[in-house]
């Protein structure tokens, strides 16, 4: 992925600026718990590449793109969080599970999660699948306005803040 505006978000802790508030809108002040969680995320969450394991086909087509579900895979591990090659390879291994079972129940259950179009999950991937690195996969709904050119890029890599429980995708302006 080409470097660009997103590089300003690499270093943590990062200051709370107008720029970061464009990435993730601050909750109303009276929601104190939500505000604390937001502050923790915008200040400390690592910038990560998120790989699209699978997504509704409309997200791949800028002309017909609409708010739709996608399965994203990412790592908060500093050595892997922006390792595009490793992430692509891991994504291919996860996709392959839909066609071929490994015999390892901890790994094979991900094939069932991916096959079920109604599944909604947030799961850590087994170390046997990731090569020992910590990686997570979850279902989220994606707004085409957060995608470069209103569609998932050909390489399937997106930018986001790697939160404990999800990835907060960066707006499309960060891809320019």
Name a few traits of the molecule.
alpha+beta, globular, 176 residues, 6-stranded antiparallel beta sheet
How would you describe this protein?
Helices cover 27% and strands 20% of the residues. The chain has helices spanning 18-23, 32-44, 84-96, 105-115, 127-130, and strands at 47-55, 68-74, 122-124, 136-142, 157-162, 167-169. It has one domain (47-175). The mean pLDDT is 88. It is globular, with a radius of gyration of 16 Å. It has a six-stranded antiparallel beta sheet, covered by helices on one side.
How are the SSEs ordered, and which strands pair?
Elements: H1 18-23, H2 32-44, E1 47-55, E2 68-74, H3 84-96, H4 105-115, E3 122-124, H5 127-130, E4 136-142, E5 157-162, E6 167-169
Spatial extent as radius of gyration: 16 Å
| Counted beta strands | 6
Order of helices and strands: HHEEHHEHEEE
- The percentage of residues in β strands lies in 15-25%
Helix percentage range: 25-40%
Q: Can you list the strand order of the major beta sheet?
A: 3-4-2-1-5-6
User: What is the domain tally?
Assistant: 1
Q: How would you sum up the major sheet? A: 6 strands, antiparallel
Kindly, what is the distance between the CA atoms of the first and last residues, rounded to a whole number of angstroms?
Answer: 11 Å
Please identify the structural class as seen in this structure.
alpha+beta
> Helix segment count?
5
């Amino acid at each position: 992925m080409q470097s660009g505006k997103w590089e300003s978000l690499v270093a943590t802790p990062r200051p709370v600026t107008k720029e970061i508030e464009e990435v993730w809108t601050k909750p109303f002040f009276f929601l104190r718990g939500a505000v604390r969680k937001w502050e923790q995320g915008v200040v400390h969450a690592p910038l990560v590449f998120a790989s699209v394991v699978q997504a509704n086909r409309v997200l791949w087509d800028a002309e017909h793109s609409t708010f739709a579900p996608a399965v994203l895979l990412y790592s908060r591990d500093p050595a892997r969080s922006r390792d595009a090659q490793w992430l692509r390879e891991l994504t291919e291994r996860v996709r392959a599970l839909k066609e071929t079972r490994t015999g390892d129940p901890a790994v094979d259950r991900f094939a069932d999660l991916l096959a079920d179009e109604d599944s909604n999950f947030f799961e850590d991937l087994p170390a046997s699948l990731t090569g020992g690195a910590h990686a997570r996969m979850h279902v989220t709904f994606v707004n085409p306005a957060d995608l470069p050119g209103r569609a998932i890029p050909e390489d399937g890599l997106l930018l986001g803040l790697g939160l404990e429980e999800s990835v907060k995708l960066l707006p499309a302006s960060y891809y320019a």
